[in-house]
Design brief:
There is one protein chain. This protein has 6 helices and 11 strands. By secondary structure, the protein is α/β, with parallel strands linked by helices. The longest helix has 12 residues. Helix 3 packs across helix 4. Strand 10 and strand 11 form a beta hairpin. The chain has a 6-stranded mixed β-sheet, with no helix packed on it. It is globular, with a radius of gyration of 16 Å. The chain has one domain: Purple Acid Phosphatase, chain A, domain 2, CATH 3.60.21.10.
Amino acid sequence: MNPSSLSFSLNEKGRDFAVGDIHGCFSALQTALDTVNFCPTVDRLFSVGDLVDRGAESHLVLDWLAKPWFHAICGNHDFMTWRAALGNPYLEVDHQMHGGAWLYDLEADEQQRIGHRLASLPLVIEVQTPNGLVGLVHADCPYDDWAAMPKGNHSEVDIDYYLWSIERYKRQYTVPVRNLHALVHGHMTVPEMKILGNVHFIDTGGWSDRGHFTLLDLHTLKAHRGPGETLKPIVRLNYR
């Protein structure tokens, strides 16, 4: 796994959006982008991870990751997918039961390409905005001070937090993360965007017909509601 963090400078020509878990519902995501008149020549889209599993278009993930305006961090489903694709499955969770069956229907070389690309995703992204620095981590952040976040290698404990933890949400912990304008998470599916301190949970279930995509403008922290997928949701199993 690529343990690095990525930093992005201020977008002076357009807007920056973050989107919650996509789960292989890329056509629905595109429809949501159309509702905010997303302009790929100047705007950028940052995904908080879980690009694949559950949705019927998970196999399109490489097409989206090739788009120069689309940037993503690794979520727990991306992690399970690349581990399985590269022959080292994550045995603590049954990937196929959690929406990963699509992967095993692909040819071996396609699995390899997807696996290597997902394994290269960073765990942390930070984006400079007109109002300060915004961080993106898939599930949770173990630090109350962004300055304490490692910029290079991350410990196994930290990685477990980034990919799986729901501690902040479960505890309804409202202490802001210092030295950061805002922190953005996915992973925890909520009916509407939830803010705890300066931490924004934006996985509003756009991958199912019970939810919608939330597009968070990172410059203004205004949330835009986009339509979700029309497919019936797969039952969410408790793996953490």
